[in-house]
Amino acid sequence: QVQLVESGGGLVQVGDSLRLSCAASGRTFSTYAVAWFRQAPGAEREFVAATSWNGQSTYYEASLRGRFTISRDNDNNTAYLQMNNLTPEDTAVYYCALDAARYRVVVTATPSVYDYWGQGTQVTVSS
Q1: d(CA 11, CA 126)
Q2: DSSP, res 31
Q3: How far apart are alpha carbons 49 and 35 in whole angstroms?
Q4: Count of Cβ atoms closer than 10 Å to residue 62 Cβ
Q5: pLDDT category, 67, cuts 50, 70, 90?
Q6: Tens digit of each residue's pLDDT (9 = 90 or more) over 14-29
Q7: CA atoms within 13 A on the CB side of 9
Q8: In contact, 2 and 23? CB cutoff 8 Å
Q9: Which of 1, 26, 76, 86 has the fewest Cβ atoms nearer than 10 Å?
């Protein structure tokens, strides 16, 4: 059974940084693209970033590029989201998701492409 467990969220101040982790089990993690999405209170779930199975291709929501960095460690079945210079608008539950197809090179922001999702980790940025 595939399991994704996010961690690293918390309450931070404006301008702080956080690194979220997504630990995967139950699937050959190293062969699947991984994405991060987030959902703020009362809002739709939105795409944050994705990385290809080997980490060589990345894709970001345009407004987050430069502040957020996605990476992965296939030896440890873990993906990361480094978030810098956080603002209150970054407050949301952050989810990681695993691609349904193996070896996808061109990663996508389309949620339906990802068939396994974690439970999410809360990030709250206080002003």
Answers
A1: 7
A2: G
A3: 6
A4: 7
A5: very high
A6: 999 999 999 999 888 9
A7: 19
A8: no
A9: 1
pLDDT band at 46 (very low <50, low <70, confident <90, very high): very high
Token representation of residue 93: 């539950």
Residue 79 · residue 121 · CB < 8 Å:
no
Mean pLDDT, all residues of the chain:
96
Cα 27–chain centre separation: 17
In the Cβ-directed half-sphere of 120, how many Cα atoms lie within 13 Å?
Answer: 12
Is residue 32 scored above 90 in pLDDT?
yes
| Residue 113 DSSP SS3 | helix
